[in-house]
Structure of RNA polymerase sigma-70 factor, sigma-E family:
Amino acid sequence: MNDSQDALAAFVSARRTALFRSAYLLCGNREEAEDLVQSTLVKVVLNWRRLQRVDNVDAYTRKTLVNTFIASRRRFWRREQPYGELPEEGASADGDPDVGIAVRAALARLTPVQRVVLVLRYWEDLSVGETARQLDLRENTVKSHAARGLAVLRTDVLETMT
């Protein structure tokens, strides 16, 4: 293998788990999240030579993940409704598993853009400006999507937990 292939293999190995976690929060379904990560990584691999000149390959990959997710939600043929499933892995001892289930169910009820904004802002820990650049939105639009999404999450999670 040459240096470029080594760099690509190292990048995929280092980012695959983090991409899967974000994809799972976006999709709410393990199989769909795996497909989303796979589609994203295929796009990254196909553009790897060009990406070596890009300043932030990680940001490009995250944006590709988000755009691929949003595009999949726009397809008219997509009529399948995913049902909530428990992940195969157990919940951590630190958190209440019921809260995690409630949050994932509430995330599934958000619009795709609201879900993407919340995942980028609060899971990926991006600033409002970084999120706006990733999604090609104005900062005020990001703030309003975040506020509306959080309001829905609060209401849904509180109703579920009481």
Notes: The chain has a mean pLDDT of 82. Residues 3-27 form the longest helix (25 residues). The helical segments are 3-27, 30-46, 48-51, 57-74, 97-108, 112-123, 128-135, 139-161. DSSP finds eight helices and no strands in the chain.
